[in-house]
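dumping this here before i forget
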Amino acid sequence: MELRFGSMLREDFEVFWLKINKEIISRVKVIPLEENDALMAGDILADMRKTDQGIGIQDVLIAASAITSKCIMVTTNTRHFSRINNLIVKNWLEKI
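structure:
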């Protein structure tokens, strides 16, 4: 959703979307959103609201899916996602 959204905002959408499909989507496993992910997302969102930490619902769903699937969250927005408990976050631009 986020990749499509960001792509749709670009003037070169068609070309950029083809590049996203070829270079990113074709190389990753897309994890379907399950009931446990939704429950985890509700917990995360409530915890963050209690501590006055704003976060978008889409980011909460992505984080919850990563946590329940025992995956690493790969992003350039490490500062944003590192506020979520039990989420392992790696910056995909940094060398490992």
